[in-house]
Design brief:
Order of helices and strands: HHHHEEHH
Shape: elongated
Low-confidence stretches: none
Mean pLDDT: 82
Structural class: mainly alpha
Helix content: 55-70%
Strand order of the largest sheet: 1-2
Number of strands: 2
Largest sheet: 2 strands, antiparallel
Distance between the termini: 148 Å
Number of helices: 6
Radius of gyration: 42 Å
Strand content: under 5%
Length: about 260
């Protein structure tokens, strides 16, 4: 008795072998190095398809070859779109770090913020390599015609056209594989940046709590400058004038009293 579950793939289970996990991490590290270093231009395979490899020229074979070619172009376009979206995620994480830089950071907090920015900058550089991939082969009129000097274009036979389409598809798939590895390296650098950013957020929250409970005391002292000395001298002059004025007022009051006493009663 057949069951539907017998024809379905089993669920993906967590990897329990430490050796396999380490081997996978080692492979990811190789992909990261591959994404960082410059690359040569994509090359064609050692052997190309030609019409001798095509047994028949029916529509089924032609449509299949053309679908493979279209799928290779769509795959490259999809990888470019993922690279552009990855830049938006990197920008969002970078905004948090820029906010941290606007505040006073010291010690390990500063170290993790700078480390996070380093990872994100590398991720941006790698992501830009996945946008605008130019190493692609497209079908053009030279796929259908043979151009010779001083002669009219000659139409290629159907088998030759199928072979040309397959060569373009194979070349584009190779470019897509390389672009996918570069994009994976960019995601890895973004992951490192997110982890260090989370640690930076923990330092920020810890510093915020300690600052709110601390009472700051400040002692303000004025330096002995020309302005301070001039103000002091001005105050001395004013005090002298006030003393002289007070003495004159006392003398005037005594004079008035003497005048009042000299008048006849």
């Amino acid at each position: 008795m057949s069951k539907q579950s017998d024809y379905q793939a089993p669920l993906v289970q967590p990897e329990k072998s430490v050796k396999k996990v380490w081997k996978r991490l080692k492979g990811d590290f190789e992909v990261l190095i591959h994404g960082l270093i410059p690359h040569e231009r994509a090359k064609s395979p050692g052997k190309d398809f030609d019409k001798s490899h095509i047994a028949s020229d029916d529509d089924y074979l032609y449509q299949t070859a053309f679908e493979i070619y279209k799928e290779s172009l769509e795959r490259i376009s999809g990888l470019e779109e993922k690279g552009f979206k990855l830049l938006t995620y990197i920008s969002a994480v970078s905004a948090i770090l820029v906010y941290f830089l606007s505040s006073e950071i010291t010690g390990m907090f500063k170290f993790f913020v700078i480390t996070s920015l380093f990872f994100l900058v590398i991720a941006i550089i790698i992501s830009l390599r996945c946008i605008g991939v130019k190493s692609q082969r497209a079908i053009f009129i030279n796929t259908l015609f043979v151009f010779e000097d001083e002669a009219e274009p000659i139409t290629k036979d159907r088998k030759t056209v199928i072979a040309e389409i397959l060569k373009c598809a194979i070349f584009n798939q190779n470019v897509a594989d390389n672009t996918a590895d570069i994009l994976k390296a960019s995601r890895m650098m973004l992951s490192f940046g997110i982890v260090t950013t989370i640690i930076s957020c923990m330092f920020f929250l810890a510093n915020t709590g300690s600052r709110s409970d601390k009472i700051y005391q400040a002692n303000v002292t004025l330096a002995d400058s020309i302005i301070v000395r001039s103000l002091a001298e001005r105050n001395i002059v004013q005090d002298t004038l006030i003393d002289n004025l007070s003495k004159k007022i006392i003398l005037l009051e005594k004079h008035i009293e003497s005048l009042n006493d000299s008048q006849p009663k």
